[in-house]
């Protein structure tokens, strides 16, 4: 199977390296010093599950340099999806599958606005990993997992083929009964912690120690559930409880990637998280005052960071 990993950072790079190491023909899109380091020395993974080094088939910043793939794994940020989809559109084969792994509730919808629906899968992943240095990725926590499916939740042969590839690469994966629910379950957690983390600029354990901030997180989550239910997504109080069990289990010092981007002055996924809930709430007639407060407080910083990084 010819595979393209578009975005070889902490997420895409990790899974791409595992697939390369398992013998698949993997190409990667990377940039700058990271691209140069992978070309010269391969891609190093420092992992709690064992280190490895992988040598992708092709590494480039230009999509025209890589072979047309059967599978494209998107390792980019959710706000980059529309532009990358436009770039991919003339590059896809008839049966190419595009698998997004980004946080966010509407990545599938963004993709099918640009690409034929037959080429698009829905997905998410669980991993704590980051770019430690050019050509080096640190996998710091969790047994990595990819969850994916068809947009209509049918169990197709092509899904089984991808799962077989993940199995061969020793990547844990599953095809759920309802991929949209799985996406929203993770979205509930990541949006609940990311915005408040960006505002307070402290780790999750410090946030949950404050009764006021913990209650603010709960109100954030309740608004997300209300929007999901208005959209026909069966999130419920049980998922709220599970989300806070996850929040309470995070080790001291844990921060979300979007929080880190905000704190470092980088473009973040604010628009795709709290901003998305605010805008969907307006469309659906669902009040989202807590998400709006978080979003509006962080929005000026987000706008400034995007200007600097144009």
Any overview of this molecule?
There is one protein chain. The protein is an alpha/beta fold and 310 residues long. The chain folds into two domains: 2-177, Rossmann fold, CATH 3.40.50; 181-308, N-(1-d-carboxylethyl)-l-norvaline Dehydrogenase, domain 2, CATH 1.10.1040.10. 47% of the residues lie in helices and 19% in strands. It is built from twelve helices and ten strands. The strands form two sheets. It has a five-stranded parallel β-sheet with strand order 5-2-1-6-7, with helices on one face. The chain is globular and about 50 Å long.
Number of separate domains:
2
Helix content: 40-55%
Q: What do the pLDDT scores average to?
A: 95
Strand order of the largest sheet: 5-2-1-6-7
- Give the DSSP E fraction (strand runs of 2 or more residues): 15-25%
Termini separation (Å)? 35 Å
Main β sheet profile? 5 strands, parallel
**Poorly predicted ranges (pLDDT <50, ≥5 residues)?**
none
Quick overview:
By secondary structure, the chain is α/β, with parallel strands linked by helices. The chain is built from twelve helices and ten strands.
List the helices and strands and how they pair.
Layout: E1 2-6, H1 10-21, E2 25-29, H2 32-41, E3 43-47, E4 52-54, E5 58-60, E6 71-74, H3 81-88, E7 97-100, H4 107-112, E8 122-133, E9 136-149, H5 157-168, E10 172-174, H6 179-200, H7 204-209, H8 211-230, H9 237-249, H10 257-263, H11 274-284, H12 289-308
Parallel strand pairs: 1-2, 1-6, 2-5, 3-9, 6-7, 9-10
Antiparallel strand pairs: 3-4, 8-9
């Amino acid at each position: 199977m010819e595979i393209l990993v578009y975005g070889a950072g902490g997420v895409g790079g990790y899974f791409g390296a595992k697939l390369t190491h398992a013998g698949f023909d993997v190409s990667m899109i990377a940039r700058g010093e990271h691209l140069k380091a992978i070309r010269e020395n391969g891609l190093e993974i420092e992992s709690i599950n064992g280190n490895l080094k992988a040598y992708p088939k092709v590494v480039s910043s230009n999509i025209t340099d890589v072979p047309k793939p059967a599978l494209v794994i998107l390792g980019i940020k959710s706000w980059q999806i529309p532009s990358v989809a436009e770039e991919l559109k003339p590059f896809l084969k008839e049966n190419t599958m595009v698998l997004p792994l980004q946080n966010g509730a509407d990545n599938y919808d963004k993709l099918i606005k640009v690409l034929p629906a037959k080429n698009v899968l829905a997905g998410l992943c669980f991993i704590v990993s980051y770019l430690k240095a050019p050509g080096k990725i640190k996998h710091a926590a969790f047994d990595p997992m990819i969850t994916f499916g068809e947009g209509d939740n049918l169990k197709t042969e092509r899904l089984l083929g991808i799962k077989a590839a993940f199995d061969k690469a020793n990547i844990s994966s599953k095809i759920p009964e309802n991929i949209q629910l799985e996406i929203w379950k993770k979205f509930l957690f990541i949006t609940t912690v990311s915005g408040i983390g960006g505002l307070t600029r402290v780790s999750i354990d410090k946030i949950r120690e404050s009764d006021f901030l913990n209650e603010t997180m709960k109100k954030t989550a309740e608004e997300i559930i209300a929007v999901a239910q208005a959209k026909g997504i069966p999130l419920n109080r049980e998922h709220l409880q599970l989300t806070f069990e996850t929040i309470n289990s995070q080790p001291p010092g844990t921060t979300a990637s979007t929080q880190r981007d905000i704190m470092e002055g980088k473009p973040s996924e604010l628009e795709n998280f709290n901003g998305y809930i605010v805008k969907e709430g307006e469309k659906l007639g669902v009040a989202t005052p807590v998400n709006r407060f978080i979003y509006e407080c962080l929005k000026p910083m987000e706008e400034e960071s995007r200007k600097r990084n144009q």
